[in-house]
Amino acid sequence: MMAHVYVFLLVLCSSVFARELRQSDFDDGTFQLTEPGNYVLMEDIVFNPNKASDTLPPFDSSDVSLSQYTFAGGFYDPSAFGIGFFAAISISASDVTIDLNGYTLSQSTEHALQQRFFAVIELADRPFIPNQGPHNFGSSILCAKNLVIKNGVIGLSSHHGIHGNNVYNVTIENVDFVDYEVAAIAINGGHGVRIENVRALGTRRDIPVFGSYSAARFLRPYIKLLEAGEYEGTLRVGGKELTIDDVYEDLHVATDNVFSDVIQKSNGARNSFIDEEEHPMEYALFHNEKGLIDGNSYGILFNNVGVAILDFPMTPEDPSQSISLKNVEIYDTVADIQEVIVLTSEEKAVIDPVGSAFQIFNKKPGTDEYITISSSNFDEATYIGNPVANAQAFVGKAVLNGAFEGKPLDVSRSGITKEILAWIEADPEEPEAKLSHLLARNPPICNSDTMIHVNKGVIGLKLDGSRLAKISNLKVENVINYGKLGSDICGYDSTTISNPDSILPGYQGANSRGMSLAGSVKVKVQDSHFENIVSHSGSACAVDILLDSHNIAVVDNFADDIHAAESHEREDFTGPNAIPEAVAYRASDMSSGIQFSDCDSNGNISNNAGGLAKVFHDLSIGASELLSYESTSSSSSSASVVCASALLVLAFLAHM
Question: Which residues are the signal sequence here (predicted)?
Answer without folding.
Answer: 1-18
